[in-house]
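Archive maintenance. Older records in this collection stored only the sequence; we are now back-filling the structure field for every entry so that each record is complete. The fields below show one back-filled record exactly as it appears after the update. Entries are processed alphabetically, and Aminopeptidase N is next in the queue.

ARCHIVE ENTRY
Title: Aminopeptidase N
Organism field: Nocardioides kongjuensis
Length field: 484
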Amino acid sequence: MRRLVAPLGLLLALVLCLPGLAGSASALPGVEASDTGNGSAQGTDPYWPLDGNGGTDAQHYDVRVRYDFASGRLRGRTAITMRATADLRSFSLDLLLPTTAVKVDGRRARFRRVGKHELRVVPKAPIAAGASFRVVVRYAGKPGAYRYAGERNWLASGTEVVAMNQPHMAPWWFPSNDHPSDKATFDVRVTVPKGKQVVGNGVRVGRTVRRGMATTHWRMSDPMATYLAFFAAGRYVIDQGTTATGIPFYNAVSRGLEPKLRGFVRGQLARSGAITDWLQTKLGPYPFATTGGLVTGLDVGFALENQSRPTYGGWIYPGVIVHELAHQWFGDSVAVQRWRDIWLNEGFATYMEAVYAAEHGGPSLVAYLDRAYDKQCTSPATDFWRLDIADPGADHIFDGAVYDRGAMVLAALRNRITPVHFDTLLQTWVAAHHDGNATVEQFEALAEQVSGEQLDGFFNAWLRSGTVPAQNNADNGLAGVFCG
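Back-filled structure field:
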């Protein structure tokens, strides 16, 4: 995710930036004691204890929804292939919309609501640990009427809808184990009036029209975190082709934008192919089958790294495209294991903005770090330095320090272990954890392995100490940095 505000002057001459910010969320209370343990409605992440569920591992989602623009009502049928990680007499899914029917392996199952966010399912027969099973949930409601964790995430008008948000989005439109640690593959079919177009993750499989309604099928064949799954429906200008290295791209720009702005953002979005190719030279092969992006006409105060196809508002510029496409490696292919690991997403994507700027007329990475440090080092008591960005807390995962100080950590690490070792570190990281999940501690361990150096002091100073890393200390990657 990229907030609307620009990081530490990084935009320079990279055009257009409007003010604003993204929201944060707070945790909900835990569930009742009878729902804890294997098969529970409670996940393992203390930031949002109700995200994800115990006892199950999602393998594949087959999501089929029909959306009515006039009423704002969504009707869905989602089939989930799951594996039991424990003996189950019941299990839970995350869903806000009212449920009308549930089947497990073709047999009707009992179900009940646990609070507003959890769907408790009791199959006809217990499920043994290690067994695969298929649960089909039918549901319907108005997503715009629901809140969770302080968020009202449904974005829609009478002419356009887009299911994009972070850290939560899935429960507004399909049942799931809604946590990044439980990734799965996806087939998504969306039915809307035939005059509308539908855009989603991955590859468009096909579109069928019947009685004035069109169903569009999108497929994501790589494992994906649930919050990254999206669909948008409306009227769009579509541009398709391949990048210089042969990666197919699919770009969509809302016709709801006024013509002059629409032309501008279409030109900006057209940079996605070249930026994807450039990122490959830094990070290794692009991790998915297709790239591109969508610009919505709805009022959105952030951009988001939806897997293979980031989503943007009408404020789009090269830096934010770099940021969201860098997330395809950092955040999508290599997802966080816990929300506390968010620095591995946002700090890394922000760092790639600095790298792109350095190679396209902006300050060098050394100058970038000097300027960023000089701007902040005179204010040691601010939250910019106090925040532990390796464990920022649920209310602070999108604070500026996670992004901008996070990027500074990497620039300083590059100084500390040499650019050659640092480049090897990033490429090894994304290759080792491709299609998986990882933690901050794993990154620290790999940095020591690649560099052959002990780096506890460096990471503690930059990530956790709550104070300004010592100036003119080579161990902190700041030798020669000027402050004041």
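Update note: Residues 336-476 form a domain with the Neutral Protease; domain 2 fold (CATH 1.10.390.10). The first strand starts at residue 2 and ends at 3.
Entry marked complete.
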